[in-house]
Amino acid sequence: MYQRIQGMTGMTKTFDELMAVYEGREGRGVVFQPRIKHWYDVNLAAGTLPKKYQGMYVDEVYQDLGVTPREVWGPGGAGSEFAGYLHIITEYRTPVGTMRQIQRRTEYGTSLYNVEYYLKDLKDIEVYKYVLRERKYLWKRLRYSWGMKRYGDNLPLRVQLPRSPLMWLMVGTMGFQRTVIMLWRHRKEMEELIRLLEEEFEKMLEVCQG
How far apart are alpha carbons 112 and 85 in whole angstroms? Predict the structure, then answer.
């Protein structure tokens, strides 16, 4: 059983210091938000969390460190609906074709890496372009309400957008080597794809602003 905390008042000072940096006030240093969720997830799954952090949520660890959380909730963790599966296969079936991705779990099941990327050739790119044109975004009110109830005004609202289009192709959908080769051999098609990915950012931001 995890212990629960009644509010996050211990973070108020840290939050004020963080906002001072964002607002450019004098006498403040850089924002320190260590990215410890993966460390936490792996050690939780392996049973090797330091004794003082056993039974704590990751945000309580952040509180003990005296810093505001960078991330406290992410999909695909050990307790998610994907837990127990070694591979996760995701397939898009559209009027213009099909594309498929295969991801494999790491040793403790806390993260995923691609063993087969969505985009392997020009046919897959056409499918992906269709998906991007048809894709819509919605504000996830339930997650926002959960965050407000747990953290209140102690944490700033943050929007997490995907990587830049080129980096997203290299890491998320195509892989580094294939991205470089496709940019060299099929410049026109790749430039159109990158433009569509840039438009995705606009779609996401419009939802956040609305």
Answer: 11
Q: What is the pLDDT of residues 175-188, one digit of tens each?
A: 999 999 999 999 99
Q: For 50-101, give the DSSP string.
A: -GGGTT--HHHHHHHHTS--S-S--TT-TTSTTTT-SEEEEEEEETTEEEEE
Specify burial of residue 131 (Cβ count, 10 A radius: 0-12, 13-18, 19+). middle
Half-sphere exposure of 190 (CA within 13 A, CB side): 20
In whole angstroms, give the CA distance from residue 74 to residue 110. 10
Contacts of 150 (CB under 8 A, 6+ apart): 8, 59
Residue 180: other Cβ atoms inside 10 A: 13
Q: Is 33 exposed, middle or buried (0-12, 13-18, 19+ CB in 10 A)?
A: middle
- Listed by start position, the domains of the chain span 9-65, 118-209
Provide the whole-model pTM: 0.77
For 44-66, how does the pLDDT look when each residue is reduced to its tens digit (9 = 90+)?
Answer: 989 999 999 999 988 889 888 88
